[in-house]
Amino acid sequence: MGQISFSDAEYAGKRKKTRREVFLDEMEQVVPWKALLDLIEPHYPSAGRGRRPYPLASMLRVHLMQNWFALSDPAMEEALYEIASLRAFARLSLGEPIPDETTILNFRHLLEANDLADDILKAVNKHLERKGLLLKKGSIVDATIIAAPSSTKNSQGERDPEMHQTKKGNQWHFGMKAHIAVDAHSGLVHTVTTTAANESDVEQIVDLLHGKEQAVWADSGYRGAQARIDREGLQWHIAARPSDIAKLPEGRSKIAAKKREHRKASVRAKVEHPFRVIKRQFGLMKVRFRGLAKSTAHVVTLFALSNLWMARRQLMAIAVVRPRCARSNSHAAKTARNAKARAGKPGLRGSTGQARSRSHDLP
Q: Would you kindly state where each structural domain of the chain is located, as residue ranges?
């Protein structure tokens, strides 16, 4: 970034931090920037004889902000011109060229063409696992329906052929399904798959489990999942149908069954948190792209970002504690080195004993 503009200088002098600025400051600390940049850099165009590309770090930050704030390509371009906090996060200035909507679109297409959304999720999870926040000893699986536009008022005169309708309760839904498996300890997403909305939940159980878990929790839509996984020692905690519990005769057995279901539900509740984050926090109430492939890349990226948002406090606490430990360790090592150096000097070794005895031997 070169010389800042008057607008950026005026913004830098203000005192109060908005909620958007606080959020961006937190994300600045928790996103594994180096891992993501190393992942994308081999696919990003290098400077040649043509127009010099925008810095990869700036384009990645713009892409993440577009997902966090649910902005279209034109809206993202306008936001970079209007909102100083977004420009500062992207390391851009009004005194330099701002990426236009076509450049933002091309960067997203670059990630989609190279299937980098799954790699971004893996890089984020590897970062969380290295910090001790992703244990993978148990998995909770679930699915959610993401609505798609059902209108046929478009150039093709038809709905998205890759989306389908399904009935949930007494209501019909048209769109896609996002199937996820989360860590039973932290509630962080480790696997994501997507299908049309009419796909059965249990059909995705094989793809959702990573193979190292010792126990699996699921709702009643996953009945029969045990027969699809051939693994010994795996504990299954699948919820019973409410109608089956209601049919039990009143008494101790019914009370015990209700308690068992309550214990299962208390663990399964963690799987709902990522759905709330991407739908309410990041605004994914309806798919933004036509076709399952583009929507899948978008959904997987959002779940990767939801992991960082849900673990942000732990990650920031680790970042604060470790430098203190490093300083204390370096201080202890320096003290030990000084003590060893003092012990190595002949005039100081045994100063209370040897030196005094030598002085007594003098005439």
A: 6-113, 136-288
